[in-house]
Amino acid sequence: MLSYENRTPAATPAHTMTSTASQTRASAPAPEPEHHHIWIVTGPAGCGKSTVAKFISQALDLPFIEGDEYHPKANVDKMTRGEPLTDADRWDWLTQLREESLQRLASGAHGVVVTCSALKRKYRDVIRVAPYYARGARVHFVYLRATEDVLLARVQARRGHYMGANMVHSQFDALEEPAESETDVISVDVSAPLEDVEREALRRIRDVVLED
Ligand SMILES: Nc1ncnc2c1ncn2[C@@H]1O[C@H](COP(=O)(O)OP(=O)(O)OP(=O)(O)O)[C@@H](O)[C@H]1O
Ligand SMILES: O=C(O)[C@H](O)[C@@H](O)[C@H](O)[C@H](O)CO
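Structure tokens predicted for Gluconokinase (212 residues):
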């Protein structure tokens, strides 16, 4: 479980507390986290969304939503044929991922980890409005950054996936890398070995939670 408990000492440093307050804290149940975080792991095909998101969800003991499983069959058929999706193909899918994420929080989860390519700013904006529907929800994007060459090599090496290497270029054509003004984005370079990428992503996520 993500150590949300770590936030308590951070919020109230021990040296500022009276002994009575310390005792109360020691016996009181851990407080509910104030914010419930929706972690959207993003990037083009092959950047490691599924692999890294599963790792994060396990490390933080949060539910995991595999965004690819929510594409309608028509979208999957299209990608299997090597045809890039259009904006129109993606809107309902993005809305559904936002709703599924909120549903997990409504069911009692303290957070949720979701994979979603979210290639363009306007796609990220669809998910960004989640707090409008659920006060206390916080959306963050974990953007897995890589060059086209790196992703081409990884998709070529992968077996049994509908997304072929012939689709990688179109993913970069569509990609609008998060701008600096998108302050809810953690950007992680994924050229490093997987273990390093996972450790770095988790470290950055924990930092965000501690700052919250
Ligand atoms: N840092 C890494 N170093 C080496 N290989 C990696 C790394 N990250 C992921 N991979 C491998 O690259 C391939 C693509 O990873 P993964 O399927 O998780 O990407 P994805 O972004 O979910 O792809 P898609 O969007 O197409 O489903 C997998 O075979 C995975 O094991
Ligand atoms: O927006 C898109 O074009 C899609 O979500 C793709 O990114 C794939 O679903 C994913 O990469 C699986 O290979």
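The beta strands are 36-42, 64-65, 111-115, 137-145, 185-189.
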